[in-house]
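Hey, can you fold this one?
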Amino acid sequence: MTPLDPPDRLLMGPGPSNPDPRVLAAMSKRLVGHLDPYFVHLMDETMSGLRAVYRTSNHHTLPISATGSAGLETIMMNLLEDGDRAVVAVIGYFGQRLAEMARRAGAEVEVVEVPQGEIVDPAEIDRALAKKKTKLLAFVHVETTTGACQPIEPMVAVARKHGALVAMDCVTSLGGIPIDIDALGVDAAGSCSQKCLGAPPGLGPITISPRAMAAVAARKAKPHTWYFDLGLLFQYWGENGAEKKRAFHHTAPISSIYGFHEALRVILEEGLEARWARHQSAHDMLVRGLDKLGISLFTPAANQCATINVLAIPSGVDDAKVRARMLERGVEMSGGLGQLAGKVWRVGIMGHNAQAERVDRFLGALGESLRS
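Sure. Predicted structure:
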C-alpha cells in the first residue's frame, strides 16, 4: 500500500465541495468515546446548530451517521408503512429515488413527473392528492441532475389542503439558498454534509416536525429498518428534556461530528442571509463568465438556482475530453446523469467554493480546456 497523498483539487462538481480548512482541522482533534460526557454535550450543540441552519425549533433534528441518501431514507422509512399512500413529485433522478424509497417502505406511490429541467405544477399535485387519502407528499427542492428548483411554499399549501405530511429533499440547497422550515411548514427535510454546509461527506442532517413524529408514534408496526428507526436513534441522541445519560445505539463517527459541528459554527458566524447572498453573487459571476465563453445553462431561467448550475455542452464539444483537461488543471466538474449524460456539465457553487476567486479559477480552467 502506498502512502496517502491525494491530489489538490478544486471540487466544482455537484458535491463534494472543498470544506473550509477549519472543518478539516476540527476533524483531526483528539478522539473521545461516543458516550463520553464531552461528546454527549457536543451532540447537543450540533443538534442546536443544525436547528438554527434549518430555521426550526424541531427537537428531532440531527445528523444521521451515514450519507445524505441515508437521511432521506430515514425519513421515508419512518413516515411511511405498509398500506400508506404517497405522492412524489419527480423533476429528475433524485425524485425517482424518493419514489423508490417510498415503495420500499411499503407505500402505494403515485409519481407526478415532468420533463428534465422543468418543475411540477402544484395543480398537478392537487389532482393527485384529491384521488384518495394520502399520508405523504415528497419532493426535491433542488434537483442535482437538472438544476431545477421547485418552490416550496406552493407544495406545502396543497399538501395541507389534503391533510398530507410534507417531506423535502434539500440536499443541494440547505445552507446555500433560503430555507425556513418552520415558516414554510415542512414536516421533514433531509440534506447532506458535503455540499452547501461545507463539511466532508458522511452525514445526513435531517429535521422532523412534532406533527411528523406524532405520525411515527402512531405507526401500526415498527419501521422496516433498525439502524434508521427514529425511536431508537433518539435514545442515543436524546429525547426532548431527556437526561444526559444516553443509551447505546451505534458508535457515532466522532471525527465527522467534530467537522460537522465546526461547519455549523462557520455558517452561523457568517450568518445565513450573508451566506445565501454570497452563493447568489458567486452564481451570478459564473453565469456572466459562461456567457463570455458562449455557454448557456440547460435549466430554464425561471427554474434556476444559485447552488447547482447545469451547463448545456456546446455542439461539437467532447464532454469527457474537456472534463479530463479540467482535471489536469486541478479542477473537477461533473457530467450529466441518465438522460442528460453527454449533454450537460454540472457545476456546484456551494459552501466554501462559493467565492469569487474560486469561480474565477474555474472559469479560467474551463476556457483553457475548451481551447486546448
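The first strand starts at residue 10 and ends at 11. Let me know if you want another pass with a different chain boundary.
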